[in-house]
Amino acid sequence: VFASGFSMEDEETGEFLLPCRLCSERCFKNRSKHKNRECYNGCAYFFKIMLGDYAEKLRVPPAFVPKLTIEVGENVVLQGPSGEEWVVKLWGTDKKLEFSHGWENFVHHHGIEFGDFLVFKYICESNFKVRIFGRNGCVKNITVCEHKKINTDGERMDGKEFIDLVSEECNVDAKVMSQNQRRKAEPFSH
Questions:
Q1: pLDDT tens for each residue of 149-186
Q2: For residues 114 and 176, what is the distance between their CA atoms, to the nearest angstrom?
Q3: What are the Cα distances from residue 82, in Å, to 22, 43, 66, 92, 183?
Q4: pTM score > 0.85 for this model?
């Protein structure tokens, strides 16, 4: 065990866990470079309700911007509910940032609709974990891919099979579709 200065909460058990040495060192390096060290505590959260022009870009709450350790114009990685990663551009000014190029692919692929509720967990550097809830307050039923990464053009960096994530009464069960029901992932196109 080592002194990390912060811990993370396990989403399933609610227990507080210490990060591994590599994560701790990386976060400490970011923390020391961060403009406002008091606001950076390892992990931070914000939520957004999908209203207005959410499908093409999504504005990061202005109060959250000081917590970021990345620069405008850099790519960020959004990890969806399945664990797959989507590369999205962070664009705007120092005070007004938004997820732009690549965001529309994330929205399309996850079936995000008007009124959905997204929770963003900022982990370190340029990584966010995203939870998606429908208007009913439950985790959404989402068809997602098992592949590792999607670039900003919506192209999969390695194509694999689909799995279904099924939500019943807010309890999420992952069901792998039978061999004959699987279909190949197709990149999003306009």
A1: 556 565 555 543 333 333 333 333 333 333 333 333 33
A2: 28
A3: 23, 20, 28, 28, 17
A4: no
Half-sphere exposure (CA, 13 Å, Cβ side) for 71? 3
Question: By the 8 A CB rule, do 109 and 144 touch?
Answer: yes
Q: Estimate to the nearest angstrom the gap between the alpha carbon of 131 and the chain centroid.
A: 7
Tell whether 187 is covered by a domain.
no
The partner residues of 157 in beta bridges, in order of sequence, read none
* Domain housing 139: 43-181
Among 50, 31, 46, which Cα is nearest to 140's? 50
Q: Which of 80, 89, 79 is nearest to 58 (CA)?
A: 89
How many structural domains is the chain composed of?
2
Q: Pairing between strand 85-92 and 44-49?
A: unpaired
Amino acid at position 143, single letter: T
Domain co-membership, 36 together with 64: no
- 114 inside domain: yes
The predicted pLDDT at position 146 comes to: 44
Torsion-angle region of 52 (φ positive above 0: left; ψ -120 to 50: alpha; else: beta):
left
